[in-house]
Design brief:
Elements (H helix, E strand, L loop, with lengths): L4 E5 L14 H12 L3 E7 L17 E5 L2 H8 L14 H17 L9 H14 L5 E7 L4 H11 L4 E7 L14 H17 L2 E4 L2 H11 L7 E3 L21 E6 L2 E2 L8 H7 L8 E6 L2 E2 L2 H6 L3 E3 L5 H10 L2 E5 L12 H9 L3 E4 L5 H8 L3 E4 L4 H10 L19 H5 L9
Parallel strand pairs: 1-2, 1-4, 2-3, 4-5, 5-6, 6-7, 8-10, 8-13, 9-11, 10-12, 13-14, 14-15
Helix pairs in contact: 4-5, 5-6, 8-13
């Protein structure tokens, strides 16, 4: 029997990605399939080189093809990495013009500006297929960027008998406030494209149950026989310290990943507003690990915040073990019911209580409550967050993780739902 083959198509992949969260799903899937003895290739975009963040070993033996992507490069080159912004307010005219341009670009490209490199992705995939003209291939497209699914659609249409196309949703497409269009024409076009993709795909995987539910309702289709919930997960469980933990002088909360002042998703202002209400002598520190883009005034108002910059994944796992609590921050309501952030699974592996700050309708809040993994508070409830922080010294950490088998949150467990049953 010939070796099974897989081609993963996604727009963000190391080293051209600002954080692990946006790429780790496809990184670990490629590694998983490689360990199952598949011949694995990845087609992705070039951009700003952020480095591999200590995950180089995951990609050993993987054939990676990088496609030039000017729009992605321009966007990522504008990022400020591990640097605090100087307080400089842009002019009102500049802000208005910038907002208009961003809105026009969002509406212009369907489903997103990744459409500009779809042809190059297809060209690269065809070269791989031509090198082995008698073999069948499993094509996995992962979005967002949802333009990746157009590559799968066109390849499946051209090679219907050679390709098994798996369409992977990390987030919703037209059911998500972030990615759906506002213009009537582009909105209808985007919806039509998504429906055609869903109909042509051989199998569909979803990172969370709400994504599947919304899509089935939106398109009036039943995906029961060609879909599966394949959540993200942790790679491995770090070794737990056997000695009894010492009493800390200060409570240490860790946040791992991108942190921003102006971002809709992780607006640090909500944290600052709560921290300002704490007594000055309250024994508390918030440790930030990862790419940081904060204003100088943010740190002046929140001296409890300690910035550590970007670290490798292995270092992050070690630092998580040193924290008393691990924080998830999500400050955007539209589509938040879909959200199970990737770091949630790493936090579970560290077996530390999770402090989730975000819309209470998030799927991750549901999991935290069901398995008693920590606490959730709405990000807009400033007083509620302050009160929760004040109660932390009295919180009994020993009651978490006592009645749950965390193996169900591992990537191995999740990917076993996908392979081998849905591969050719």
């Amino acid at each position: 029997m010939s070796q099974q083959k897989a081609i993963i198509i996604c727009r963000s992949f190391p080293p051209y990605a600002p954080s692990v969260g946006g790429t780790i799903r496809m990184e670990t899937l490629s590694n998983y399939l490689k360990r199952k003895n598949l011949d694995v290739s990845v087609i992705t975009s070039k951009g700003y080189d952020f480095g591999y963040m200590g995950l180089e070993k995951l990609l050993e033996g993987i054939n990676i093809f990088y496609v030039k992507d000017r729009m992605k490069s321009v966007r990522e080159n504008s990022y400020t990495v591990s640097k605090v912004k100087k307080q400089k307010k842009p002019s009102k005219l500049f802000s208005i013009v910038k907002k208009i341009i961003e809105t026009l670009l969002k509406e212009l490209f369907v489903p997103d500006d990744g459409i500009l490199v779809v042809k190059n992705y297809i060209k690269t995939a065809k070269k791989i297929l031509k090198k082995d003209p008698t073999s069948k291939f499993n094509i996995i497209t992962s979005g967002p960027s949802h333009s990746a699914h157009l590559v799968g659609y066109r390849l499946k249409k051209k090679y219907p008998n050679r390709i098994n196309w798996i369409m992977d949703y990390r987030d919703s497409w037209n059911c998500h406030g972030i990615f759906k269009k506002d213009n009537l024409i582009t909105k209808q076009l985007s919806i039509r494209i998504e429906k055609k993709c869903l109909e042509r795909a051989d199998f569909v995987s979803f990172a969370s149950s709400p994504i599947k539910k919304k899509i089935e309702e939106r398109f009036s289709i039943n995906l029961k026989n060609k879909s599966e919930i394949v959540m993200n997960g942790f790679q491995e469980i770090p070794e737990r310290e056997t000695q009894q933990e010492e009493m800390r002088i200060k409570i240490k909360i860790g946040h791992f990943g991108w942190l921003n002042t102006s971002s809709h998703y992780r607006r640090f202002t909500y944290i600052t507003n709560a921290l300002k209400k704490l007594p000055k002598d309250f024994p508390f520190e918030l440790h930030q690990y990862g790419h940081t883009n904060l204003k100088k005034t943010d740190l002046e108002e929140a001296p409890q915040v300690k910035l550590h910059g970007n670290i490798s994944n292995s270092e992050a796992v070690q630092k998580m073990k040193e924290m008393d609590y691990l924080m998830i921050l999500h400050t955007f309501d539209p589509g938040s019911e879909d959200v199970i952030t990737g770091k949630f699974f790493e936090y579970v592996a560290a077996q530390k209580p999770i402090l989730c700050i975000g819309p209470l309708k998030m799927e991750v809040c549901k999991l935290i409550k069901e398995d008693n993994l920590g606490m959730c508070v709405d990000y807009k409830d400033t007083q509620g967050l302050t009160d929760l922080l004040l109660k932390l010294p009295e919180y009994d950490n020993r009651k978490v993780y006592k009645k749950v088998d965390i193996q169900k949150y591992s990537r191995e467990y999740q990917y076993n739902k996908l392979y081998p049953s849905h591969f050719i």
